[in-house]
Amino acid sequence: MASTRRSYPSDLLDAEWAILEPLIPAPKPGGRPAKVPRREIVSAILYVLENGIKWRAMPHDLPHWSTVYHYFRKWQEGVWEKVAQVLVRRGRERGGRYASPSALVMDSQSVVTGVARTL
Questions:
Q1: From the DSSP assignment, how many helices (H) and strands (E) are in the chain?
Q2: Per-residue pLDDT at 113
């Protein structure tokens, strides 16, 4: 990592970032250049999530908490869902299974089918 900050256990390895990088939206063209690299933003989000801290309690060597929180909320519109889908598919393939499940088993006792009647 080219950053001068200290590393944290929640930081992404290069191989992990190679998987996530194409899924994270790039800065929009034509505006001001991004001041904070996307990898640093993702690392800061993972730090908060892994450590269960408040956004404002982030270490000062990570990007400013308001910047990180802004992107976390902005990317809630489909980015995190897509990341989860890709990671599940990769995990299934690594386990020797098809990327998408081919069958679904549903227990009828765990499915609510209607409103229960009271006597």
A1: 4, 0
A2: 63
